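Input structure tokens:
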């Protein structure tokens, strides 16, 4: 089945260039010029991934990303202008899976889309991992805490699965970028944002984490909790 990409950008030139590169890469592409049109298209035909510009007329990209995340776990790759670090971090906090900074290489964007889709749909071994009241069904790509479903993005799930699978080991942000994101380089604050969001979802007190600890001078370590 051909994977569908929804490209949301108010610049017609950017939309056309991105469309041509993605279609050349084998994707089916749908275009939207603003946030309202994007949400209407998503309501009628859910895409496999959304390429989303943050600077949109009307409903801006951050609000569109927030509504996409409220709907489910459709992956989102953000397009941000150079220097908009606060917006980029805000998008990652809302649940975007990746970002590309403008001006960007359309070829790099196509590779980022491919990488996010691969992680979103990759085959996991059919197994369930339990850590006290936290249950991760790797096959079904779901997680629960105290029996309640956790709303995790694709990237958050991948990061949590990696941490649990390597419990007790400390990893630096650069290593996590490479092993979870598949990036040889990138903004390491991306890891910081995702760890903070995971703590908010799996820790009783995110300010005093028991599972996802900071190892000063190194990075982060996942510690299994005893069964409650």
């Amino acid at each position: 089945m051909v994977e569908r990409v929804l490209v949301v950008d108010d610049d017609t030139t950017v939309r056309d260039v991105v469309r041509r590169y993605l279609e050349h890469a084998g994707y089916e592409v749908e275009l939207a010029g603003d946030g309202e049109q994007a949400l209407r298209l998503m309501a009628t035909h859910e895409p496999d991934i959304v390429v989303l510009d943050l600077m949109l007329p009307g409903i801006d990209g951050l609000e569109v990303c927030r509504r996409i995340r409220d709907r489910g776990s459709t992956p989102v790759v953000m397009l941000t202008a150079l220097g908009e670090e606060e917006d980029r971090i805000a998008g990652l906090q809302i649940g975007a899976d990746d970002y590309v900074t403008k001006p960007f290489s359309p070829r790099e964007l196509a590779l980022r889309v491919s990488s996010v889709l691969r992680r979103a749909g990759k085959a996991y071994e059919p197994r369930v991992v339990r850590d006290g009241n936290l249950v991760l069904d790797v096959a079904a790509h779901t997680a629960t805490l105290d029996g309640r479903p956790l709303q995790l993005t694709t990237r958050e799930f991948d990061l949590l699965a990696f941490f649990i699978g390597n419990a007790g080991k400390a990893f630096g942000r650069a290593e996590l970028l490479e092993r979870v994101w598949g990036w040889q380089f990138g903004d390491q604050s991306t890891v910081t944002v995702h760890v903070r969001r995971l703590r908010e979802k799996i820790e009783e007190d995110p300010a005093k984490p028991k599972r996802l600890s900071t190892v000063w001078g190194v990075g982060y370590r996942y510690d299994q909790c005893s069964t409650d």
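The longest strand covers residues 76-81. DSSP finds eight helices and twelve strands in the chain.
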